[in-house]
Amino acid sequence: MTSSALSSGRPAEIRWHPLIVRYAPVIAIVLAIIAIWYVAAVLMNMGIVRSGFEREETPYTIADLISGTLSAERPLLPAPHQILQTFGEDVFGWPVTSPRSLVFHSWVTLSSTFIGFLLGAGFGIILAVLIVHVRTLQKSLLPWIICSQMVPILAVAPIVIVVLGSIGLRGLLPKALISAYLCFFPVTIGVVKGLSSPDPIQLDLMRTWSATAAQIFWKLRWPSSVPFLFASLKVSITISLIGAIVAELPTGAQAGIGARLLAGSYYGQTIQIWAALVAASLLAVGLIGLVDLAERWVGRAMGART
Amino acid sequence: MRAPDVATQVGPSAKRAEALAVSARGVSLTFQTADGEVEALSNVDLDIAAGDFVSFIGPSGCGKTTLLRVIADLEQPTAGTISVNGVTPEEARLHRHYGYIFQAAALYPWRTIERNVALPLEIMGYNAAQQRERVDRYLKLVNLSGFERKYPWQLSGGMQQRASIARALSFEPALLLMDEPFGALDEIVRDHLNEQLLRLWDQTRKTVVFVTHSIPEAVFLSTKIVVMSPRPGRIIDIIATEFPRDRTLEIRETPEFIRIAQRVRSGLRSGHSYDE
Amino acid sequence: MKPDWQRGVFFAAALGMLAAIVVPLSSAPAAGLLARPGLLALTVVAAALYGAAAFVAPRLSIAMTFAGVILGCFVTLALLRDDAVAGTATWGFWLAVVANWIAAWLGVARLAAVRPQEKSAARAIDLAIPLLFGAFLFYLWEVAVRGFGVPSVLFPAPSAIAVRFAASLMMLWEDFFQTFILGVLSGYVIGCSAGFLVAVIAHRYTFLGRGLLPIGNFVSALPIVGIAPIMVMWFGFDWPSKAAVVVVITFFPMLVNTLAGLNAAGYIERDLMRSYGAGHGQTLRKLYLPAAMPFIFNALKINSTLAFIGAIVAEFFGTPTRGIGFRISIEAGRMALDVVWAEIALAAIAGMAFYGIVALAERATTFWHPSYRT
User: Residue A52: which domain range?
Assistant: First the structure.
């Protein structure tokens, strides 16, 4: 009997702390992206900076070139620190009510996002409840709502603004209506899915107790739909934000993040555009975070596993 | 076309130098889990001769599946040595010495039955003609001729398992490793498949290592029964059986059978505490 | 036995139609139905159908209801041809419209309640109901706009939109070509392919995958259309900047979904591959990729809509004198809403066709997935 074969135990593996395992890759990639960004900024802005130097006939070194690319006034690709700087200026450098403050513009966009979201989500939930309980609506209306997901509805924004504008409704309300219109579709579909999600055996059990439709709804369907509801609320609030931003475009609105993006592109203020994008991203993250918080709070009340 | 990378030279035991299909000494395996260390196997010594039909039996969580996976190089032991067909488990795996059959049929739903059975053959480099010939042969062996073009979901659970057995046989490994293959099936189908498996083993003369938690199944099928204790997995008893190779299910009523089954059962009880 | 309230509805519908004969049709002086023998006859027949539908067997009743609705709608639409009625329609007219409405609603409701035995009949009904519903909505739109005399500058009738659509086919084709073929398709192909490739690489090297997945999820939630002005700065006004926006929009959902799909293969199937000594490339081709198909197609479907939206919105930020987004924003500013609606109709048809093609491709390749078999 030979024991030429060996499979002796491996050396014990290094046990990384779970937090490191989870976050190290993300941090590493983010750092890599920032590094690549700087290199790209240097390369992309090189042409502008060089022609700038040559126009003014100043002598320049490589170091001058590189520092020039990272601090150009109208760069093709601003360096991260430039964006952060402008962002900081636009947020903290002006009084909050000034039209030069990003806080002001963010607030304008945020307010129509919120109102639109509340209107749209509320309407969507009510419609979903109706659809689940009225078979006619389910067969006639639901297919259209599903179809609307395939249609670029955002294209309707200019019409709504114009039509409402011509009957005298301007400012917050048309934007909120567009946001509401956009975000009620995912909420409706998600909540319909959620309300129809209970197992058939659960519904049978309810029937053995002679539960009324309302009781079934409040005790079974509505609690079962909570995960679906929050998933679609997250999607819907980001769409509402995009809708609010886009709604500011067609009429050349004066206030709001969309307006800021437009102004930046008209006047060639590149860094301003990027700063506005950072603001929009922060808004999006914040909004999703709010929904997430609400979800966690509700989840705890419903005994969800942490 | 390069030669298929299969250890077809590992034939019947009489021709080989190593008469041992599996040889384990002091094999231990400790898992690192979130809740701390779990000792799945503790100091396992085992010899399996070529041509044997060996069952591992024990309660859930006793490490029998883990031991099978160590033989298959799907897990690595933290201590001890093990050789499969005279080489390390890893080499055995890379040279396709064994076929593994899981608790679930694990057929790919996007492939027909014949493409499923041909899957290992594709990977191992057989040409189309060889694939077709082997697929036909082994589907016939498991009585699934005629179902080549069907998809897995169109077959019953028992038929799917038979297809997965055909798949494991198709590249003719010397060793068959089976992890509770009939556990999800009802008793009637199970009896039927037990008989078929026995016939197959008798015909092909392979070494089979079979994990189960059914005592009648283990006693019926095996030449050797390895009784294991719950965590940490140790071998409590190794029982050899002397049943004739052409036995049928009636043998389960004979006194000899019952005696061996009782020995298995007491071995299980002695190692098993009901406090868990 | 029909519930009484349904019978009541049928009678109300019949009465409504009959009332249109006597009640004035328009606030301006216009000939009533008594002076239009053809339409009068049709009105009476419609009323009779409604009334009779209250008594006959369910299937026949549904058929009679819809026959009555067709006749009734025809009458009202024909009446609108008269300039004296259009724009100044009053009680008589609206009673007829409402009669048609409640009859149509009841017809749809009873059709929805039918549960036929054969699957093909059930599927036909499932298709018919939303179509009938949609058709009736268009009818209501048409009648309301023309009956109330809503200025077409503000809100055109579907017939006007259809006319404008047919008259502007050349322009619509140009816009479609610019936005969809040049902008959407090129961006979609590039973005989805890039997302797919990066996902395959990230699947192979787990460190990369674990880093990219959260970032991908994060970026997918951001309002990416905002990068349109920057893309214009980099790629110019024409379609490449729109395609660039589409690339960025489609990249991340594709990345996230493909990665999820590649990780979706079960442990047993993976162990099986390992037991065959299969290399990563073989396992990728034979296991990971086929198992990922449902996820990949999910992303392709989502991306089809996102891409289209992205291209159109990017055009709102500036584009040469062509494109769906361009046309919509310009013509909206000029209050030429019928053109805008025609473009929206174009966008709707194109969007649904695009999604439909992707869905068909999905059905062909992922027929094996449980969700298709139930």
Answer: 18-77
Cβ-defined contact of C329 to A158 (cutoff 8 Å): yes
Distance CA C255, CA A125 (A): 31
**Long-range interactions of C209-214: CB distance < 8 A, separation 24+:** C209/A25, C209/C259, C210/A22, C210/A25, C210/A26, C211/A25, C211/A26, C211/A27, C211/A28, C211/A29, C211/A30, C212/A29, C212/C255, C212/C259, C213/C256, C213/C259, C214/A26
Q: What's the total number of domains in chain A? A: 2
Domains in chain B (CATH in brackets) are: 17-97+213-271 (3.40.50.300)
CATH of the domain at A186: 1.10.3720.10
A253 has a pLDDT exceeding 80? no
| Residue A193 sits in the same domain as residue A245 | yes
Q: Do C298 and C264 meet the contact criterion of CB atoms below 8 Å apart? A: no
The interaxial angle of helices A80-92 and A270-301, nearest 10 deg, is 80
Asked whether residue A21 carries a pLDDT value surpassing 60, the answer given is: yes
Chains that touch B (3 or more CB pairs under 8 A): A, C
Give C292 to chain A, closest Cα distance, Å: 22
Residues in chain C with CB shorter than 8 Å from the CB of A131 are: none
Q: Identify whether residues A283 and A139 lie together within a single domain.
A: yes
Give the count of Cβ contacts less than 8 A between chain B and C: 55
Mean pLDDT calculated for residue range C110-128: 85
pLDDT at res. A305: 66
CATH of C166-373, one of 3.90.380.10, 1.10.260.40, 1.20.1740.10, 1.10.3720.10: 1.10.3720.10
Q: pLDDT (tens digit, 9 = 90+) per residue, B247-259?
A: 888 888 999 999 9
B251–chain C nearest CA distance, Å: 34
What are the helix (H) ranges across C225-283? 228-235, 239-262, 267-275, 280-283
